[in-house]
Amino acid sequence: MVTQQGLDLNRNLNDRGLSIIEVIFALSIFAIGILAVSTLALSAISSNASARRVTDATTLAEDRLERLAAMPYEDIMGDSEMVGPYQVTWVVDEDDILVKTKSITVTVNCPEGWKDTNVVIRHLISKNS
Questions:
Q1: What total of structural domains would you count in the chain?
Q2: At 90, which helix (H) or strand (E)?
Q3: What's the angle, vertex CA 23, arms to CA 38 and CA 18, rounded to 5?
Q4: Can you tell me the distance from the alpha carbon of 76 to that of 93, in angstroms, rounded to the nearest whole number?
Q5: Helix residue ranges, H only, the chain
Q6: Fewer beta carbons below 10 Å: N end or C end of the chain?
Q7: Which residues make Cβ contacts (< 8 Å) with residue 128, sequence separation at least 6?
Q8: What is the maximal distance between C-alpha atoms in the chain?
Q9: Domain limits for position 113
């Protein structure tokens, strides 16, 4: 009976804790998970930056188009300007689609080495409006 209790104590002492292999295995799984999450975070940051550039370019194009639409019909002419890193260009074609109208095409692109950030908006203005 004394021997049986002694064996039970030894077995309980050996079953406590983790072996070094179990710890290494758990840490490697944890590291792979952290790597996947960090890659996902970097991808999300890049996508957000790209979306912001497209939003900025669209806002610039719409702003330029509204300014041109507010001008008298005879004064609307093509031109271009730099707004920060963006090149804003507008081309005005008279009687392009319909008679007594001007077709305005506003193009915004960013030549600063970003991915193709190009936005094109086209609008038609009538001489009578």
A1: 1
A2: strand 86-94
A3: 150
A4: 10
A5: 2-14, 20-70
A6: N
A7: 100
A8: 112
A9: 2-126
Residue-wise pLDDT tens digits, 20-55: 999 999 999 999 999 999 999 999 998 898 888 889
- The tokens for 56 are 């900025």
Whether residue 65 contacts residue 89, with contact meaning beta carbons closer than 8 Å, is answered with no
Reported as a single tens digit per residue, the pLDDT across 72-115 is 989 999 999 999 889 999 999 988 788 889 999 999 988 766 67
Query: From CA 66, how far away is CA 45, in angstroms rounded?
Result: 32
| Residue matched to tokens 């095409």 | 105
CA distance 38 to 94: 53
Q: Identify the burial level of 85 via C-beta atoms within 10 angstroms of its C-beta, where 0-12 means exposed, 13-18 middle and 19 or more buried.
A: middle
Contact present, 96 and 104 (Cβ < 8 Å): no
